Amino acid sequence: MKTDLHIHTYYSDGVFSPEKIVDTAIDVGLQAIALTDHDNILSYDVAQKYLKESNKSDKLEVIRGIEVNTLYKGYEVHILGYFMDVNDNDFQDMLKYQQQARIKQTKEIISLLSRKEGIKIKFEDIKKQVAEGGSIGRPHIAKAITNVGGTASVMDAYAKYIHDDSPVYVQRKTVSPQDAVEIIYDAGGIPVIAHPHDLDIAETLIKELMQYGLRGIEAYHRKHSPACVEYFSSMAEELGLIVTGGSDFHCPNIMNGQIVLGKNFVPEWVYDKLVAEKKLIDMA
Asked: Do 3-87+177-283 and 95-160 agree at the fold level?
């Protein structure tokens, strides 16, 4: 089955609605996708409703997913989750905690921008960039800074203000990767470490997270070279973990307008392994 297991919508830092993601996925020949917005799961129900109302349910399977942003020893570690029971109390508490942390961080940055840089932006100007209830984050702050003339471009906003060494940047207080993995696993889901190439402590951390329920490694990712894919696929096999993959789609390529959704090669057996892993968890 042709799949893309890492996709963002405008419920976090993607630009497409869930409906447009569904149509685009069908257009490029995908048969199953996972919506993995940062720290929320709202896009799934919207996509499912659209599939049903437009009589397209037979053309595409949408998997409920999430990407939880965590911090660990100065590293930003992203944990993907698939097939979890979203009504699980601990899972719901994690979502609330993550959303509150995003709001708190954003308001503190807004205050510092005003006080130290004279850049006046409103929380509402940031909030309105995402769908109702969605996850605000750094891209939205950067765009708001640019919109009020604080910088010439979003890239400039990142370079000047949206990084750890900036005097106006505040680190978000997130759950730990250990907590994220354990909560997703205990909710009957499959926790997977996302784009591990970003982490020079990946191997050590993966082995530690296995103690909390980690079940997979995202070996296939648009940032991963063939050698990187092979490295993490081999690591997964040695450790008894499954392999997942996806485009990590946020928006069309700015330079040429190309839609990269589904363009990242993910072997068809990845979907089968994911479903089989869910059955194993349910039987445990």
From this structure: no
Q: What are the structure tokens assigned to 172, written together?
A: 């978000």
Would you say domain 95-160 falls under CATH 1.10.8?
A: no
Q: Is the pTM of this model over 0.90?
A: yes
- Cα dihedral value 177, 37, 168, 179, nearest 10: -20
Name the residue ranges covered by the structural domains of the chain.
Answer: 3-87+177-283, 95-160
| CB neighbours of residue 137 within 10 Å | 21
Sheet with 190-193: list strands edge to edge. 3-7, 32-35, 61-72, 75-82, 190-193, 216-221, 242-246
Task: Give tens-digit pLDDT for 23-69.
Answer: 999 999 999 999 999 999 999 999 999 999 999 999 999 999 999 99
Report the length, in residues, of the chain. 284
**Number of Cβ atoms within 10 Å of the Cβ of 261:** 23
Beta strands in the chain (DSSP E): 3-7, 32-35, 61-72, 75-82, 190-193, 216-221, 242-246
Q: Rounded to the nearest 5°, which phi and psi values hold at 253?
A: -60, 120
* Model confidence pLDDT, tens digit, residues 227-253: 999 999 999 999 999 999 999 999 887
Architecture per CATH, 3-87+177-283: Alpha-Beta Barrel (3.20)
